[in-house]
Amino acid sequence: MRILVQKFGGSSLTTVESRDRVIKHIQREQGEGYSVVVVVSAMGRLGDPYATDTLLQLVQSEQEPLSARELDLLLCCGETISAMTLCAALKSAGIKAVAFTGAGAGITTDNEYGKAKIKKINPERVLAALEDGNVVVITGFQGMTEQGETVTLGRGGSDTSAAALGAALAAETVDIYTDVSGVLTADPRIVEGAKSLSVVSYAEISNMAREGAKVIHPRAVEIAKQARVALRIRSTFNDEPGTLVQDESFSGNEEQLMDRHVTGIAHFKGLTQLIVTDPNEQGEMPLKVFQTMAEQAISVDFIHVTPSKASFTIFDSDAERAMKYLHQIGFEPQLRKGCAKISVIGGGMNGQPGIMASIVAALSSESIPIMQSADSNTTIWLLVSEERMEDAVRALHYKFELYK
Ligand code: ADP
Ligand code: MG
Q1: Has this prediction a pTM greater than 0.85?
Q2: Relative to the alpha carbon of 156, which ligand is closest?
Q3: Which pLDDT belongs to residue 253?
Q4: Nearest ligand, CA of residue 234?
Q5: Distance from C-alpha of 40 to C-alpha of 165, rounded to nearest angstrom
């Protein structure tokens, strides 16, 4: 059996017309000889009747909140509705189909409600249904604990379901269908001329995803990479091949992958920068500061330490707590809310002369101050103010000629 996993995001399943497009993609691949497994997200976005955020809103105004366990029982309904709706449409189109929940598909997770991790998949029932000639429709985003509790996998969790099923079923490829034509050089909502990339490496897309490009969940990339399952990101609304994700070590794509220093620009906002100074330079300040952050499970980024000064960023949502505990140990941090992180992501940037110069030139020509920067072999990170984030993304996209 040649197995193909197709994952369809919320915007691909909202209307009868879009579900018809989904069915066309399924039929085309069946015609190519594939046994098809379809993983679905909940339909639509906030405001649409069965979207995850709409379900969440149903209970948000209650005085007594649901437990995390009960919340998961509510949230998993979106995918169930979506899967059964698609399954019905497939049957009506004369295509043999069967639907499973995450649990039914054999997905076992850990016990973390709201952000469960897949521990193992027993693919027997899915394989049997495929052998029987069915298209197998599976609810994304869900799993079951060893105790039999239904859990959800967190935002973007359907991508993870699809990749994990692809790995467990030894699928040839996992196709992530969405509302854009592939992995783009930047978020198309910010950069009008963002271009679809035909091939990216696992490392490039994983960096893009981790740094805020919403197009795929980073965990899904990790799973596919480990299992050496090829990934494609493509549009539900056209028949273009989209973006193929492969390793440099797969033959055939080396040239496309190696020949670029900058692949794309990613961004996210909602960061607070903290600067702690120790006028006495006792040398113990950084230790105390970061130990406190660790004890409070506050994750830190953009760290820069000297004996008298420690600066770092945290999420805005952690700012109040961080300030409270730093005050408690006697520090008066300087706080700057409303920061954004921009990532310039490439294949091999280390030792490439001129990349930082181009970044600085692009941002200073727009009078955008860089509050801090950091770099690795594959990424240069920039901290800028939230108000200038979009201008900065556009300026960098233009400077590196990513529209070409
Ligand atoms: P789905 O519901 O299909 O999972 P998502 O909203 O999670 O869709 O992800 C697709 C969206 O990701 C696109 O509509 C696009 O606006 C956004 N996006 C952000 N950065 C990128 C990027 N670099 N390439 C492609 N899409 C991106
Ligand atoms: Mg998504």
Answers
A1: yes
A2: 2
A3: 56
A4: 1
A5: 12
